[in-house]
Write a structure and sequence with these properties.
The protein is of the alpha/beta class. The protein contains eleven helices and seven strands. It has two domains: 170 residues, 3-Layer(aba) Sandwich (Rossmann fold), CATH 3.40.50; 89 residues, Alpha-Beta Plaits (2-Layer Sandwich). The two termini are 24 Å apart.
Length: 275
């Protein structure tokens, strides 16, 4: 990565935001939306706001961390209830699941923007997102959500570098897509499955693992961790603790993906894409 190019792209981002009268950021608390919100707040001050959805598909830990960030920086932050489970097209979990989720999300955020006199809504999509299957982009285009990071040509590596330069603690935060991404397409999304996934991933996180996915395959859980952590997770004592906890959660069979965690794995087979 060329640091000078990354800084130049940030300047492009700054110029974009300076041209906006006000901005509401769809804020998940992840690397990208945190960086975007931080830059927007530096430029627009109180005219930059954040909105975060709260529901069964979102980790409560992620919500707490997002709220902590905005509170520490005195950024106006609206947390609203989103009801994805009330969308039959989402619950059925077809390959366009994310479109229906994002369409409702952006409609809700635009309503919040209107109530607060905010002119523009943005999400944290970056250039690398174009390499994966992202049906939510169609919802963004339909509703008029802008993607300043993408428009500035910023990729994930550059955003992490610039976040670190700004002193943002999220610079090395693992990606954390919604819990529904752990359920294979075609398998109904239920509250029970989401709760099982969150409890299982929370347990592994407390054991010190950073990048985690627990895939829900009926009575079977498939654990994904970084390839470098495969040996660690097979430690005999830890292995037994995981088996005990996962069975308590409700999984009858617990497996380990020997490939490790790879972004986009659940999208393999969709037009040939490799979450």
């Amino acid at each position: 990565m060329d640091k000078d190019i990354a800084q130049s792209k940030k300047e492009n981002l700054v110029d974009q935001i300076k041209g906006l009268e006000s901005l509401l950021v769809a804020f998940s608390g992840g690397v990208d939306s945190t960086f975007l919100l931080a830059v927007a707040h530096e430029i627009l001050g109180e005219k930059a706001m954040a909105a975060t959805a709260s529901s069964e598909i979102h980790s409560q830990l992620e919500l707490r961390e997002a709220s902590d960030f905005t509170r520490e920086r005195n950024i106006k932050h609206i947390v609203f209830a989103s009801d994805e489970m009330g969308l039959p097209a989402f619950v059925s979990n077809d390959t366009d699941r994310c479109y229906h989720c994002k369409r409702r999300l952006f409609d809700s955020i635009f309503a919040i923007a209107k109530e607060n006199g905010i002119m523009h809504v943005a999400h944290g999509a970056n250039l690398d997102d174009l390499n994966d299957y992202r049906p939510g982009f169609r919802a963004a285009k339909e509703t008029g959500v802008i993607a300043p990071l993408m428009d500035a040509g910023l990729n994930k590596e550059e955003i992490r570098f610039l976040s670190r330069e700004m002193g943002l603690s999220t610079w090395n935060k693992p990606a954390q897509p919604c819990l529904a991404t752990r359920i294979p397409y075609g398998s109904l999304i239920t509250s029970e499955k989401l709760e099982m996934i969150e409890r299982a991933e929370s347990f592994l996180s407390k054991q010190g693992f950073k990048e985690i996915r627990v895939r829900h395959h009926g009575s079977m859980a498939t654990i994904e961790v970084n390839a470098g952590s495969l040996k660690e997770i097979l430690n005999e004592r830890l292995r037994k603790n995981i088996l005990e906890k996962f069975r308590e959660i409700g999984f009858k069979h617990i497996t380990l993906d020997l490939e490790g965690h790879v972004t986009g794995k659940m999208n393999r087979g969709l037009r040939g894409e490799a979450e």
